[in-house]
Amino acid sequence: MQTVKSDPPKIGYSIREACKATSLGRTTIYAAIAAKKLRVVRIGGRTIIPAEALHELIAGDG
Q1: Would the N or C end of the chain have less CB density within 10 A of its end CB?
Q2: 43 in the Ramachandran plot: left (φ > 0), alpha (ψ -120 to 50) or beta?
Q3: pTM for the whole thing?
Q4: How many domains does the chain have?
Q5: pLDDT per residue over 49-61, tens digit each?
Q6: How far apart are CA 17 and CA 23, in angstroms?
Q7: 4 occurs within a structural domain
C-alpha cells in the first residue's frame, strides 16, 4: 500500500506566492500593504503575508 504525502497548509506567503495564489499583481499587493489593507510581518529580511490576512483581503474584510 502506498501512502500519500500531503503538505501542511501554508500559514504565510511571500509577495511572489501571494501574487500567484490570488492572481493579483505585485503593484496591487504593495498598494494594499501601503494602504494598511494587507497586514505583513517582517522576519529577517523577508516580508511574509500571513494566510489569514490574505484571506481577509480577498473576502473584502480588510
Answers
A1: N
A2: beta
A3: 0.82
A4: 1
A5: 999 999 999 998 7
A6: 10
A7: no
